[in-house]
Amino acid sequence: MSLLDAKISAPLEGGPSFSLKNRLARLAWGVVWATLASWTPVALRPWRRALLRAFGARIAPTADIYPSARIWLPSNLEMGDYATLGPEANCYCMGPIKIDAYALVSQGAHLCAGTHNVDDPSFQLVTRPIHIGAGAWIAAEAFVGPGVSVGPGAVLGARAVAFRNLDADMVYVGNPAKPLRPRRVGGAPAAG
């Protein structure tokens, strides 16, 4: 496991939370993305998908990752058909993040699969997977926290914050996110 025991690594004193192998993989990834992808035109989607796959991501052939998106560790990322990571989206995949088909993570949105145990005197890092369901929309600058599952067709409104699971086909707003209303597709509630 690449996650280190905080009692031994002492992150509160500047020690690492992840193994050396993990840190080196992220360093190599950061250099590759910065030099070969972050400046590329939006249309070079196949090139960015290939780079992500080379670093262990499971990316569908039609997924779209914008050049300004940030991916912490590609091997923890899975994206379905026509799933999108928009401009400046931050995919902080300390743990697994799965984005299903046709799901959209808009500009500046933040998916964060890690946190610290605030009750642990060693401040142990904890990772929990995130799952964005098919056809869901994480709107501009919204935040999805560790362990959250966003149901298919759900909408997390702009700058909303989700720390709990979101039901399918519901629109959520606010901090913390609260259900506003059912999502309507074509004037009727979406079918789950």
Q: Tell me the total number of β-strands.
A: 21
Strand content: 25-35%
SSE order: HHHEEEEEEEEEEEEEEEEEEEEE
**Based on helices, strands and strand pairing, what is the structural class?**
alpha/beta
Average pLDDT figure: 95
Q: List the strand order in the largest sheet.
A: 2-5-8-13-16-18-19
Count of the separate structural domains: 1
The first-level CATH class is given as Mainly Beta
Number of helices: 3
Quickly give the CATH architecture.
3 Solenoid
> What's the alpha carbon Rg, rounded to whole Å?
17 Å
Please explain how this structure is put together.
The protein is of the alpha/beta class. It has a single domain (17-184), classed as Hexapeptide repeat proteins (UDP N-Acetylglucosamine Acyltransferase, domain 1). Helix content is 16%, strand content 28%. The strands form 5 sheets. Strands 2-5-8-13-16-18-19 form a 7-stranded mixed sheet. It has a 5-stranded parallel sheet with strand order 1-4-7-12-15, with helices on one face. A 5-stranded parallel sheet has the order 3-6-9-14-17, with no helix packed on it. The mean pLDDT is 95.
